[in-house]
Amino acid sequence: MYVCMHVCVYMKMAASLPSTKDPLQQREKLYLLAVGYFRNGDYSRSRDLVDRCLTVCVCPSVLFMFVCVLFRIWLL
Fold first, then answer.
1. What's the confidence (pLDDT) of residue 1?
2. N or C end of the chain: smaller count of CB under 10 Å?
3. Alpha carbon distance 14, 18 (integer Å)
């Protein structure tokens, strides 16, 4: 049930991305989705979202997430 709730939240957030016009809100949604996929072990999807997030706006937390994702992919 816990995982199901997270999947529903991810789906709602992903569905709301196209309607988000503010770059900071878009970056926040992309970042949170990337963190969610990272925690679920889907590192390639997380990396795609982090890459998209970096094209919107660069910030320290996104750069740290990018390094974490690359490190996890490298370890696999």
1. 44
2. N
3. 8
